[in-house]
Amino acid sequence: MLNVQLLLTGNELMSGDIVDTNSVFLAQQLKSMGVELTRKTTVGDNLPLLVEQMKTLSQSADVVIINGGLGPTVDDMTAQALSEMSGRTLTIHPIALEQVKAWCVKRNYRLTGPNMKQALLPMECDIVDNPIGSAPGFSLRHNDCLIICTPGVPRELKAMFNEQIEPILKQMLPDSVHVVTDKMQVFGIGESGLQKMINESFPDWPESLELGFRASMPLLEVKLTSREKSQNTLRQIWFNKLKTLFGSHLINTDGANIQQTLVQLLQLKQLRMTTAESCTGGLIAAKVTSVAGSSQVFEAGYVTYSNQMKQAMLDVDAELLAQHGAVSEPVVIAMAKGALAKSNADYAVAVSGIAGPDGGSDEKPVGTVWLAWGNKDALQTTQLYFPAGRAYFQAYVANAALDLIRRDVLDIDETPRYVTERQLPKQK
Question: Is the peptide bond before 203 cis (omega within 30 degrees of 0)?
Fold first, then answer.
């Protein structure tokens, strides 16, 4: 297997002045190709240390990617260090010089000595085109290792990797390597819960298929990876088994988030929805309207934080509020009915809860929320309990609300796990 190692350069990385996102990007891209990053080293702008690390890495790796140190200032030392390590004299590279000139002309900049420095590269190196920035990338071979030098600017690195570096690395991989990853988005089951389901349902899981999880609130991404062409059929068979196992908790397999999935569903069925929110403060509506094209399915939402506004905007009866309190089943039903009547939408979801950190009671502790959802003909309700921080509580309630509407539109009768698992503990 191809041994790829990474050298990151720059005092700003060592001091923590900037956060390293480039190595994360490279590791993810390499993994998607079937290549594991075997070593990552970070060195400040110190010429002897850079030379030492370049020598060490080139002796053990098939490919070394050097990130950073290609700029015009004195602390950009990658070309100089590589020149000393490889014994290649620094010289003006004609192709690099033309690229630097073109970059300056395009921006009406005057070509200066510092810009010229970016074309001063080790002899007989090959240019790796930088389609965005002023610093050309370059590569050379030393110790039977391909060394590829890239700029530290993240968007420049990404463009260069996708257009230049990935094709080079793919040519170095064995023909049998063919990495494919299928993904699905799941809501309402935690990572440990999913793993338990899989372990119990599939004790015969094939070792050749790699199963991975990536938690990204509110969805959990499940990834199934095969690494050889001969495994494509096997991967598809087990991917379908997972979809069946997850059932109604499977949101999609196209990478969309929960609000994108819901908006697409409503568009397909030519339906409109509305929201009546108290404890989430408009977050549900904000999620829906963050999706391009949501105006086709969403015209109005109502944020009624106080009891007075629940009465004024949604016609919730004052006696209902006095008798049951804002966080109650009768009130969220009234809120949903009021939102449907005011907006003339097809579906509504209403939420009222106690986000905290204060305001709870023994009967209704912080984290309690009532939800009502459905249409004019049938409304459903549930009480849930999310004893967490305010932001997490609001985010989870908002996403649960979107999921409950999704299930209703799809006529899914199955009760989601979070409804059965997130109930108030019984009072002693």
Answer: no
Torsion from C-alpha of 237, 240, 246, 250, nearest 10 degrees: 140
Strand segments (E) across 102-218:
120-122, 126-128, 137-142, 145-150, 177-186, 210-216
Tokens of 2: 């191809």
Provide the token pair at 222. 């499940």
Q: Which residue has the tokens 């070593």?
A: 39
The answer to whether the beta carbons of residues 182 and 246 sit under 8 Å apart is: no
Provide the pLDDT for residue 407: 98
pLDDT tens digits for range 153-186: 999 999 999 999 999 998 998 877 788 889 999 9
Q: How far apart are CA 400 and CA 222, in angstroms?
A: 19
Q: Are 275 and 302 in contact (CB under 8 A)?
A: yes
Does the structure show a pLDDT above 80 at 375? Answer: yes
Q: What is the pLDDT of residue 403?
A: 98
What's the whole-model pTM score?
0.75
What are the strands of the beta sheet with 298-303, ordered from one edge?
298-303, 273-277, 347-353, 368-374, 379-385
Alpha carbons within 13 angstroms on the beta-carbon side of residue 322 total 3
What's the pLDDT score for residue 428?
55
